[in-house]
Amino acid sequence: MSEAILHSSTHQRLEPFLILSKSVKGPANIKLIQDVLAAPSIYVFAELLECPNMMEASALPEVIPYYTLLKIFSYGTYRDYVEHATELPPLNEQQTTKLKHLSIVSMSEESRTISYDKLMSYLDVTDVRKLEDLIIGAFYEDVMKGKMDQKRKQLEVEYTMGRDLRPGQRSSVISILHEWSQNTDTILASLDQKLQSIHETAAEEKRQREQYDREIERLKKEIKSSGAMDVEEDGARGKGRRTNTGLYDDESYRAARTRKR
């Protein structure tokens, strides 16, 4: 499943919660947040964060910890949660697993190859078997694709889902995309120049080959014409006679005639 398909699938699963948020007000948003964070296969939350009723409720003291938790699931990591765990609601097993999946996605932004030791330390996983089960779960959820190198004890990530943007990240992403677009234009222009050069070189080689072929034909005709003229001139001066075996001078011709007699 591609990233675009995954995002579409996640949005479809989030849609019922978005509809529900239109009628949920005040502290009732706490239950909504808990449910969406535990719901399977939902890994993006920006739309729910920006719902008017949710944003209004986020100012309530009892809702603030849950809204903060929703933001961590949206663009934070498991380590962010651990650092503020005393101020946040506890996570159930499904929520913990989901946040760890999202954390691996964030870690892969820095490096596509992540050692088991780094993953275990960052995610508070105690042994390799539990870590590999966690990674396999992320594969099944299509959160990411890759392979586990058990010999080198590392995860090699091929691609991941896209996460929600952090506050202030939008401008940097736009800048990166703009730079990427400029680099792409430069590369395409360079390729066009190389293709044009190749076409021009091929055309010149063809022209030279045709000129060479014409020169060869001209020389062949000259040689052929020159040979015929030599034979005619020799015959006209009486220096030889044409036989089946070649050109003889008069003396050789008379000797040959005498032998035949």
TrEMBL record:
<protein>
    <recommendedName>
        <fullName>PCI domain-containing protein</fullName>
    </recommendedName>
</protein>
<dbReference type="InterPro" id="IPR045237">
    <property type="entry name" value="COPS7/eIF3m"/>
</dbReference>
<comment type="similarity">
    <text>Belongs to the CSN7/EIF3M family. CSN7 subfamily.</text>
</comment>
<dbReference type="GO" id="GO:0008180">
    <property type="term" value="C:COP9 signalosome"/>
</dbReference>
<feature type="domain" description="PCI">
    <location>
        <begin position="1"/>
        <end position="162"/>
    </location>
</feature>
<dbReference type="Pfam" id="PF22061">
    <property type="entry name" value="CSN7_HB_subdom"/>
</dbReference>
<dbReference type="InterPro" id="IPR000717">
    <property type="entry name" value="PCI_dom"/>
</dbReference>
<keyword id="KW-0736">Signalosome</keyword>
<dbReference type="Pfam" id="PF01399">
    <property type="entry name" value="PCI"/>
</dbReference>
<feature type="region of interest" description="Disordered">
    <location>
        <begin position="221"/>
        <end position="261"/>
    </location>
</feature>
